[in-house]
UniProtKB/TrEMBL annotation, chain A:
Protein name, as recorded: Multicomponent K+:H+ antiporter subunit D
UniProt record similarity statement: Belongs to the CPA3 antiporters (TC 2.A.63) subunit D family.
Keywords, sorted A to Z: Cell membrane, Membrane, Transmembrane, Transmembrane helix
Superkingdom of origin organism: Bacteria
Species, as recorded: Desulfomicrobium macestii
Parts of the chain that traverse the membrane: 6-23, 32-50, 70-95, 107-125, 131-150, 162-188, 208-230, 237-256, 276-294, 301-323, 371-389, 409-434, 446-468
Domain NADH:quinone oxidoreductase/Mrp antiporter transmembrane: 126-420
Source organism phylogeny: Bacteria, Pseudomonadati, Thermodesulfobacteriota, Desulfovibrionia, Desulfovibrionales
UniProtKB/TrEMBL annotation, chain B:
Membrane-topology descriptor: Multi-pass membrane protein
Family: Belongs to the CPA3 antiporters (TC 2.A.63) subunit C family.
Pfam families: Oxidored_q2 (PF00420)
Originating organism: Desulfomicrobium macestii
Protein name per the record: Multicomponent K+:H+ antiporter subunit C
Location within or outside the cell: Cell membrane
Length: 498, 109
């Protein structure tokens, strides 16, 4: 057993607890603890990535209870990728928050690490009930972060978000109860074996549980009929929180990918859920694109772009071949980081425009229009999928992965969605930067230091395009590992370790 | 006994759904609580219904499945925490928005 796997869980937990003790000591020590934790997490997850890259699946049995009886953590290529992505997103978002957002309430630095712990736990766990527990940890942290800074708009959207999520949690538990009643286990690897060996009379119950799980994870990921909570919430919360939430929908995508590739495979006894994924993903993409076009505020527009990226990701996963899943796994870090960067940039833009905020109408000239405009152009090109940036490469890989009959559906929707994205972002940029009136607001211009987190996140689009070769090699290997779940099952259940 | 258990869960879920759809924070909180009771019962019953059997492995006869009991305990704790949070949030929303609509907007006349 490799104790390094526990670091992504223990380090944020310790940081959160330390910050709780430091609450009365002022914001300085808390910031130091949080930033050091984020750096430590990045280092630890990179080490884990190097380990997972070899293809060996690490497991960690808590309390030495062997699976399927005890709780188990599993690290495969997909988990390692998600961990590194989380850590890489955390650091700039935290630095941005340290420039003022964290002073709006006392507990920001207590809740923030706990949110990271919930995310990391959800990516690492190999047990469905533990997935539920980590979901609740990240959700309650997200409720607190969503309310951070307060204000009626935040309360209104957070109340909606909390109530809907509580209903989602109930459905999650019902699905778990059904699965446990049928299979007598909640360990994912064990479930995979039990579901594969199920009798025909168990199939209806398993089908119900699988579809319920898809609905619950789909709600977290914000797929078509279940996404209406997202735009209002993402536009209402603090910008740094919205940037962190860019990965929250990806947790849903991760959970769908994990359960559908392992337990409810499309060639298993219950293929319905896997088969539903592709049409739902395309519908999400189309609906999200249309709503992008109709947005009147920059941050609402960005929130709809999050939904478009979820649709794109799930479309790749719904193809159920190595190329499709690999394309999605390449697109996943790109879309998360660039959206987060755009949310942070939108904060700077809104501050520069004073009362006009992020409403898409003419406002005062910005103090450094060239710098902010170039960053916006970079982010917009990346997220809309224009060459040579990573969004283009991701979409190209995705289009390339589709076979003949499916491609006729995928190509028009993805390309149409991109076109709409370009139009919407172009209109948005021209309003923000060209259709200005009056002089810049008085006050200091935005400094390089404060802009650095947003710029770093946006420049990952360039880095991901430059590094496209190694990254796609990794995602190809991760997709192959996912589509051959035997090695996962063997590693967890200890049956002849490979 | 199975039929009775199913009936109880169905009634709880039905009432919970109705109350949640009322879209006033108080009834929504009540509805969520009823639903979480139903879910906890369901989770508890997923280990099959047995009477008079110990939840630990002994060498005499049948045992009750201990795992659902552990699961339901966790679920109850989490459920209580979340309900407490939503109660406080509902109070705050009432104070800040001046309405107890879950949407935060007054009903249109």
């Amino acid at each position: 057993m490799n104790h390094l796997i526990m670091i992504p869980l223990l380090l944020p937990l310790a940081a959160g607890m330390t910050n709780l003790l430091l609450v009365r000591k002022g914001i300085g020590p808390q910031r130091l603890v949080s930033v050091l934790t984020a750096c430590g997490l990045l280092a630890a997850t990179l080490l884990l990535l190097v380990r997972a890259e070899t293809g060996h699946i690490d497991t960690y049995e808590l309390g030495n209870w062997p699976a399927p009886f005890g709780i188990i953590l599993v690290l495969d290529r997909l988990s390692a990728l998600m961990l590194v992505l989380t850590a890489f997103l955390t650091l700039p978002v935290l630095l941005h928050a340290c420039s003022g957002d964290d002073k709006l309430g006392r507990d920001f630095h207590v809740i923030f690490p706990l949110q990271i712990m919930g995310l990391n736990g959800a990516f690492l766990t190999g047990d469905l009930f533990n997935l539920f527990v980590f979901f609740e940890i990240l959700l309650i942290a997200s409720y607190c972060l969503a309310l951070h800074g307060l204000g009626p708009e935040r309360t209104r959207n957070a109340l909606r978000y909390v109530v809907l999520n509580l209903i989602g949690s109930s459905l999650f538990l019902i699905a778990l109860g059904t699965l446990y009643g049928v299979c007598g286990t909640l360990n994912m690897a064990d479930l995979a074996l039990k579901v594969a060996g199920s009798t025909p009379d168990q199939a209806p119950l398993l089908r119900a549980a699988g579809l319920l799980l898809l609905a619950v994870f789909g709600f977290k990921a914000a797929i078509l009929p279940l996404f209406l909570w997202l735009p209002g919430l993402y536009a209402a919360v603090l910008p740094s929180v919205a940037a962190l939430f860019a990965i929250m929908t990806k947790v849903g995508v991760y959970a769908i990918l994990r359960t559908q590739s392992l337990i409810f495979t499309n060639h298993g006894p219950v293929p319905e859920a896997a088969g539903l994924l592709f049409p739902v993903a395309l519908a999400t993409l189309a609906a999200g694109s249309l709503c992008v076009l109709g947005s009147r505020r920059l941050r609402v527009l960005l929130a709809w772009l999050v939904i478009v990226s979820v649709g794109t990701l799930l479309a790749g996963i719904g193809l159920w071949n190595v190329a499709g899943i690999s394309a999605s796994l390449y697109y996943l870090p790109h879309s998360t980081l660039v959206t987060a960067g755009l949310f942070l940039l939108a904060d700077h833009l809104a501050r520069q425009r004073g009362p006009a905020g992020d409403v898409l109408e003419s406002g005062p000239t910005m103090s450094r229009p060239n710098l902010l405009g170039s960053l916006f152009l970079l982010g917009a090109m990346a997220i809309a999928g224009l060459p040579p940036l990573s969004g283009f490469i991701g979409k190209l890989l995705l289009l390339n992965a589709a076979q003949a009959p499916i491609a006729a559906w995928l190509w028009p929707v993805v390309l149409g969605g991109s076109l709409i994205g370009i139009i919407a972002l172009g209109r948005c940029g021209s309003v923000l930067f060209w259709k200005t009136q009056g002089d810049p607001l008085s006050g200091p211009p935005v400094s390089w230091l404060r802009l650095a987190p947003a710029a770093t996140l946006l420049l990952t689009a360039v880095a991901l395009s430059v590094m496209a070769g190694p990254v796609t090699t990794y995602t190809d290997a991760a997709a192959e590992q996912l589509l051959a779940p035997d090695s996962y099952i063997n590693a967890v259940l200890g049956r002849g370790t490979p | 006994m199975e039929a009775l258990a199913a009936l109880i869960i169905a009634v709880l879920i039905g009432c919970g759904t109705y109350l949640t759809l009322c879209a006033r924070t108080f009834s929504v909180v009540l509805g969520l609580s009823l639903m979480s009771y139903a879910v906890n019962l369901f989770l508890f019953f997923s280990g099959r219904l047995v009477t008079g059997a110990p939840p630990l492995a002994t060498n005499i006869g049948a045992t009750a499945d201990p795992l659902p009991q552990a699961l339901v305990l966790t679920a109850i704790v989490i459920g209580f925490g979340m309900t407490a949070f939503v109660v406080i949030l509902a109070l705050r929303a009432l104070g800040e928005l001046g309405t107890d609509q879950v949407d935060g907007e007054d009903e249109k006349p």
